[in-house]
Specification:
Elements: H1 2-9, H2 15-46, H3 50-60, H4 62-82, E1 88-94, E2 99-102, E3 105-117, E4 121-132, E5 135-140, E6 143-147, E7 152-156, E8 158-161, E9 165-174, E10 180-188, H5 190-196
Antiparallel strand pairs: 1-10, 2-3, 3-4, 4-5, 4-6, 6-7, 8-9, 9-10
Helix pairs in contact: 1-2, 2-3, 2-4, 3-4, 4-5
Length: 197
């Protein structure tokens, strides 16, 4: 109940995300309690620290406590899955020095470049300034490539990865009147999926 109230106070309004977070905290607390109980018994005999006793406990019964560690990884993955309820995306056409807001981020087109890489592929890229809450974070360059031999187009997404959220910016193509088709995404907590894995 406390976890649900805190999640609601922090802005979580998606029912299934709140339920998932409550279950994640419940499972994590249960696993920590199991480690604490076992480590406490070993500590009473040896006098070692709790972390050392928890490691000793895991080494004595690797199947049981190793299984608990696997469950911790799954809990971390499910925390990442809850972030999907808060994904944000936009697809827009932007000209030079035009920008869009995506959540707390501002994405502004500041330039365009094109060229060829050693007769392997032709490329063009948009230069984008990325800001958050008015503070400049980075200049990124999402790129399109066209491989000459295979006649295959690909895109190179600009990615800003953080523990709380990932920001993807894709240059999808050119529009009319010197505009660029930009796809921007915010994926909260997606890094937690990889950490859990």
């Amino acid at each position: 109940v406390v976890v649900g109230a805190v999640a609601f106070a922090l802005g979580f309004r998606e029912f299934f995300s709140v339920v998932c977070l409550i279950l994640c905290v419940f499972v994590a607390a249960t696993i920590l309690l199991e480690f604490y109980r076992g480590a406490r018994v070993i500590r009473a005999r040896s006098g070692a620290s709790y972390p050392a006793c928890a490691i000793d406990l895991t080494m004595r019964n690797t199947r049981r406590y190793g299984g608990y560690l696997v469950h911790v990884g799954i809990v971390i993955m499910f925390i990442g899955f809850t972030g999907a309820a808060f994904n944000v995306d936009k697809t827009v056409e932007l000209g030079q020095n035009q920008s869009i807001d995506l959540g707390p981020y501002n994405i502004k087109v500041v330039g365009y470049e094109e060229g060829e890489e050693r007769d392997q592929y032709r490329w063009d890229r948009v230069i984008v300034d990325l800001s958050k809450n008015g503070e400049h974070l980075d200049t990124v360059k999402p790129e399109r490539r066209f491989f000459i031999a295979s006649q295959t187009p690909t895109t190179q997404v600009a990615l800003r990865r953080r523990l709380n959220e990932d920001v993807y910016i894709n240059f999808a193509g050119t529009g009319a009147a010197n505009t660029y088709v930009m796809q921007a995404y915010i994926f909260p907590l997606v890094t937690w999926i990889w950490l859990g894995f």
